[in-house]
Amino acid sequence: MVLRGYVPTSEETLQTLAALRLQSLNSDFSTHAPFPRLEELFPPHVLHARLPPLPHQPPTKCRGARLRAGLLAGGLWGQALAKQRAERDQRLRGRLREEGASTMAAIVEKWKLLQGMGRPEAMAAYVALVREWPGFGSTLFDVDLHAVRPRLGVVEGQPWQWATLTPLSLQSPVGSGPQHLWLGIGAKAVSLYKPGEPEPLDSFCYGRISSFGASDSSTFRLSVEDRDLLFETSQVDEIAQLLNTYLASAAAQRLPRPQEPPVSPPTSEPTMLPQGLCPAAGPWQHRPPVGSSHS
């Protein structure tokens, strides 16, 4: 979850989490301790985010311009452009190695400060840091929210509209296009997160969810009270299975418990066992009376 970038927190905290992981794996710092690869300790996307963005090349507008560009690409200009791209990629790889080395050095320094911390203590500290995020414990899915509309029957014939989310509100579903979000499914609620943001845009307890289903292999619909939310995702089946599990659990908790039958008061009469089920007499039942003699 942390390495996939699903815990939005500062780089300082991510480095501390990596140091705690090293402490739990290898105990105290040692130059002879095995070092995992950086991508096994630290989210790779954080390092990539430090790199400068690639220059944007506007597309050619007309067929003649595309033809000239194609001819140039096959000649000297094409060779020069390929060389420039190779040099740029090499610079980016070098920059990425530098950023990785700097991050690993910072993690090792934090690891040294944990000397004497036991493995259970390091694991507990790791979990305590991750639990500070409100979405801890939820399963997160990458989705594109394509549309929100009032449910049919509430506003008959209302067309799908592009979705614009404001924090803790889905009441203004008019916007410019689909949004990439995290769909968090937990034991208590379903939440929508903007990637990298610690607080959810909105949360729906299971009592507010009236239905859900798959329109096709990549489209998922979630009906929340008077709204239908339409998502595009490659994990439709996984989302549906998890929602089924949590909804069934929530429904079971709401069901009234059956009343236990009244317990009859104990009676003083001895319990009569059916014939043939009486226990055999034990040795203590055949003791001779006190004072008797044996021949």
UniProtKB/TrEMBL annotation:
<dbReference type="InterPro" id="IPR019748">
    <property type="entry name" value="FERM_central"/>
</dbReference>
<dbReference type="InterPro" id="IPR051724">
    <property type="entry name" value="Actin_motor_Myosin"/>
</dbReference>
<feature type="compositionally biased region" description="Pro residues">
    <location>
        <begin position="258"/>
        <end position="268"/>
    </location>
</feature>
<dbReference type="Pfam" id="PF02174">
    <property type="entry name" value="IRS"/>
</dbReference>
<dbReference type="InterPro" id="IPR035963">
    <property type="entry name" value="FERM_2"/>
</dbReference>
<dbReference type="InterPro" id="IPR002404">
    <property type="entry name" value="IRS_PTB"/>
</dbReference>
<dbReference type="Pfam" id="PF00373">
    <property type="entry name" value="FERM_M"/>
</dbReference>
<dbReference type="InterPro" id="IPR014352">
    <property type="entry name" value="FERM/acyl-CoA-bd_prot_sf"/>
</dbReference>
<feature type="domain" description="FERM">
    <location>
        <begin position="1"/>
        <end position="257"/>
    </location>
</feature>
<dbReference type="InterPro" id="IPR011993">
    <property type="entry name" value="PH-like_dom_sf"/>
</dbReference>
<feature type="region of interest" description="Disordered">
    <location>
        <begin position="253"/>
        <end position="295"/>
    </location>
</feature>
<dbReference type="InterPro" id="IPR000299">
    <property type="entry name" value="FERM_domain"/>
</dbReference>
<protein>
    <submittedName>
        <fullName>MYO10 protein</fullName>
    </submittedName>
</protein>
